[in-house]
Structure formats: C-alpha cells, structure tokens
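Lay summary. Proteins are chains of building blocks that fold into shapes, and those shapes determine what they do. In this project we predict the shape from the chain. Here is one chain we studied, written as its sequence of building blocks.
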Amino acid sequence: MANAVGADEYGMRKYVLVVLKTGPKPMPAGAERSAMFKGHFANINRLAAEGKLALAGPFDGVDGWRGLFILAVPDIEEARQLTATDPVISSGEMIAEYHKYYGSAALMLVNDGHKKVAKKSF
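And here is the predicted shape, written in a compact code that computers can read:
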C-alpha cells in the first residue's frame, strides 16, 4: 500500500497545499457563475481521478478564505499548472496561495473513501 500512495519510509509524502481566496473579479449570481462552479467541481473530480488531488473542500469565507486543495505533486510550479485549469482561478473569482506540505501519504486514500460514503456527487 505504501508504494501505491507514494509513501516514503515514514509513511509521508510531499504535497502542495493550495489556499483559495476571494479574487479580484467576483462573478455575480446567474447562469455564468453556475457554469463556472460546475466547471470547478468537474476540475476537482478530474484531478482526483488522475491521482493529483488528495483533498479539497470549502472554508467558511472568513477573511476571504474560500477553500483548499491538497495536491499530490512535489512542487509549486506543477500545482500552479493544475490550478490554472480551474475556472474559478482562470476567471479571477478566486486566487490561489501555494505552500509546500509534507504529510501522511494516507491522504491519498481519502478520495476512494469519500466515494463510499457520498450519497450525491457535485
């Protein structure tokens, strides 16, 4: 299992933590905003299926903090390339802040577990 999740000898691996914050171009409610978020969730699902996204979720919006990604990539440049494909980033609705993170490789098991407990998908 350690090899399957990319674990080192300590059961850890490198990630990039991405904090999503309110961006300079908030989109008003309506069909265009709904489509943007539909694309955001599709992007999340794609990255998870590719094994590039370990964890994602929203924050409460306090201080402009909107959500996070924990990307299973070793460097910030690759994380930037992956987040550039997300409509909330490319539209300016949100901006991304990147931090290197070293954490449990078991995070890579979250997506499969989530599929087993979710009654609906985005």
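What the prediction tells us: The chain has a mean pLDDT of 96.
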